[in-house]
Every structure is written in structure tokens, then in C-alpha cells.
Amino acid sequence: MTQPSRPQDGRAALASFVTNRLGRTQARPAPAETKAPPANESAQDFEKLTGYRELRLQRSAADLIGLGNPFFRVHETRAGAQTRIGGEAFSNYSSYDYLGLNGHPAVSGAARKAIEAFGTSASASRIVAGERPGHLKLERALAAHYGTDGCVIMVSGHATNVTAIGAILEAPDVIFHDALIHNSVVTGAQLSGAQRRSFAHNDPAALEKLLEATRHEHRRALIVIEGLYSMDGDAPDLAAFVELKRRYDCWLMVDDAHGLGVLGRTGAGLHEHCGVDASDVDIWMGTLSKTLSSCGGYICGPSALIEYLKCTAGGFVYSVGMSPPLAAAAEAALSVMQAEPERVERLRRNGNQFLALAKKHGLNTGSSLGLAVIPIIVGDSLKAVTLSDRLFKRGINVQPIIHPAVPERSSRLRFFMTSEHTPEQIAQTVTTVAEELSALETGATLIEQLMARRGA
Ligand SMILES: Cc1ncc(COP(=O)(O)O)c(C=O)c1O
């Protein structure tokens, strides 16, 4: 086993231990070895991949101080507000099932019916293998939700952003995006060849400065923001972004992956939350994997855009059509969401309760609105990983988010709330978090504990 020689080495290694791979895109460091290897060595060894050795070192450092790997845990049941891992019950805060629709009888029933009628696969691209009625039904339902001309669904939320942005923009164009935008948007921008400019999180004034200085240098411009931000649980001032996109002649795209089912009285999304007409946004993007308890992504917008993407976006044209049961499940989940706004209300009550209790205990919840995503910022990677580990030992499953997914000083635990958590469960969780954090902060420092365990 590779062992760090000094506690500081262990700390540095741990600081980059758990990388949330759905988080921000970091520029890849230039490969250390650019020359051909000596004749007796092969570069074609996967263990020589840039970063692989570092990954092993990080794991070894975590093993050294007895921290379990918080990722890739096998859940033995449908993971919602509760879960089972290793035969034990946990309160679960690592599920996107915001409205408790995964496993809902209407949703599972729709998926079963679709399997009976169409099997499990759409077999090939819809252009080649043709449509299934469920594709069109889901696209019509999503277009109706946003009041757009049309919609296109794709097999992955991540791929939807990559391929749609990659298809819409070209080299003479520019994309302006929030500094905390999802990796898939950045990757799509890179694919497109357009200039990429990021502005400070949730800061329309910062965007305005950028627009004023650079908009004239480019042909087309796309502004991309999210609905509910997945790391911080806050939301943008949509009206301010609409005003800017009009004034500077840009398209505005909202990735409402975490806003659908969460934001607004009925969970309609960011537009309902902000009291803005959905038609003021040019492109509505979302995923089926969160509130809609399925898998895939969608773009809703004007008919020319939808027709264009269906005929030119590589991630649609050259990729299989959505599996019929997944399309049916998402459509059924959207119907339940729209018919039962009390689920959205329960989620809001739960999030609000968690936030209020956390604040009462003096925990740092950043800018979270207290809805589906609530961070507890602890300010140090090692503390975040250790706190997550200690909570796991007390029956709470919650993920640490550390550098480079977030800046080191804002390392955190991220709690995903659902409408199905109970008030008692939430109260018990927040009290336990406060106890364990206080024990961590008042006990021996983590570095001291690390040194003691190594007999230093
Ligand atoms: C804001 C945002 N956009 C896109 C995606 C990608 O969606 P999916 O995981 O469904 O592929 C995610 C995933 O977490 C996300 O948070």
C-alpha cells in the first residue's frame, strides 16, 4: 500500500479524495509525460493514466485513517428517504427522488405496461427504428408543461446538454454561464467550439459587465443558468436574466434539472418560483432522473429548435431512442406531480424544517433556500469526509462534497431532501449532525487524531 509519509501528505491526499464527478469541470492538467516512454515500457498501461496513481494514493490515505469509501455504496432497496446498506437501515439524504415518485404504483405500473407492449428497448435511434407512442406522449406532456412548441427527449440528461449546446453554437458564437453551472453545459460548450465566459454565481450584474464588454465580439450568444443549483440549493433571479438576454440579444437557456418538482407552489420550476412567464425563456432543459424518477433528458423550445436537434444533434441522431418503460415512467411521474401538488408542499415543509433547525444549531447552510438541496458547509475536506463517515456509523447516509467539486474552504455535506422524510427523522438528523460536528471541532484536531492513529 502506498502510504503518505507525513500527516500533511495524508491531509493533502484526502483533500482531493472524493471528487464529485457530476460537479464542476476542472481544466485537466497537462499530462506529465508527453514524450514516448523508454523502449521497454508501454504507455498503453491503464495504470499509467494521468491521475490514476493519485487516485490510488487518495484511497490509501483514506484507508490509513479508517475512513470508508462513501461512494458506490450498494443499496439493497429502493433508495428514498430511507435505505438499507449492508443489511442495516439508514436515513437517506443521497437520493434525487424529491417527490417520492420512484416506485409509486402509477409510475411502476406505466413502466410495466410499456414493457408488456414494447419490450425494454427502442432498439436503435428513433430516426432508424421509428417512434414508440410513449416517446411522443412524454414530449407532448413536457412541451405542454412549459408551454413550448415542442420537446425532444434523449437518453441521458448529461448527454442532452452536451449534444444540444454542441449543436446550437459554433466557433463565432459565445456562451455565458453561471460559474457553478453543471459539467454537462461546460462540456457542450467545449464541443461547440464557441467562446466560453463564466460569470459570478447568481450575479446578473457580473453578467451584464461581461455582456457590455464582449457581446459585440460574437455572432450568436447563449446564456445558461440553472433552476435550483445542485451544490448550494439556491436559485437565480430569472427576471433579471430575462431582461439581460433581451437587452443584449441572446438566447436564455435554463437547466431546471433540480427545479422541476421543487421550485414554485406546484413544482412547475424556476419560472413559477420567480413569477416569470415560461415563454420568456428560449430553451428549457431538464432531466428525467430527478423528480421524474426515470432516466434521460429533455429540451423544450420553439419548433425550429426541436426539429433541428432531432435531425442534427449527434446525441439524438446517433443514439438509441429512450427505452419505452423509462419514457412511460417519466410521463406518469409528471402526471402525478401535476395532480398532487401536496407532495411539493411536503418537500418544502421538510426542507424548511431542516434549514431552520440547522440554523438554530449554528450550522452553516450557505445560501440554500431550504428546499431540495441543503449543504452543511464545514470548510475543510478532511472534516467533511470524516463527518460523513461518523454520520454513516450513526445511521445517516449523506455524501461529502469536497475540492475540486467545491472550493476547499466550502467543503460540505450535501443533503437532498424528499417529500417522504418525516419531521422526526429530520429533527433527529440535524441534532446528530450538530453533535458529531461539535465533537469533531472540540475534540483533538483531525491532524492530531491522524498522528495518534499512526503512532506519531
Ligand atoms: C444541473 C444538472 N444538469 C444535468 C444533469 C445531468 O443529468 P443526468 O444525471 O440525468 O444525466 C445533472 C445531474 O445531476 C444536473 O445536476
From TrEMBL:
<keyword id="KW-0032">Aminotransferase</keyword>
<dbReference type="InterPro" id="IPR015424">
    <property type="entry name" value="PyrdxlP-dep_Trfase"/>
</dbReference>
<dbReference type="InterPro" id="IPR015421">
    <property type="entry name" value="PyrdxlP-dep_Trfase_major"/>
</dbReference>
<keyword id="KW-0663">Pyridoxal phosphate</keyword>
<feature type="domain" description="Aminotransferase class I/classII large">
    <location>
        <begin position="93"/>
        <end position="430"/>
    </location>
</feature>
<protein>
    <recommendedName>
        <fullName>8-amino-7-oxononanoate synthase</fullName>
    </recommendedName>
</protein>
<dbReference type="InterPro" id="IPR050087">
    <property type="entry name" value="AON_synthase_class-II"/>
</dbReference>
<dbReference type="InterPro" id="IPR004839">
    <property type="entry name" value="Aminotransferase_I/II_large"/>
</dbReference>
<keyword id="KW-0808">Transferase</keyword>
<feature type="region of interest" description="Disordered">
    <location>
        <begin position="1"/>
        <end position="43"/>
    </location>
</feature>
<dbReference type="InterPro" id="IPR015422">
    <property type="entry name" value="PyrdxlP-dep_Trfase_small"/>
</dbReference>
<dbReference type="Pfam" id="PF00155">
    <property type="entry name" value="Aminotran_1_2"/>
</dbReference>
<dbReference type="GO" id="GO:0008483">
    <property type="term" value="F:transaminase activity"/>
</dbReference>
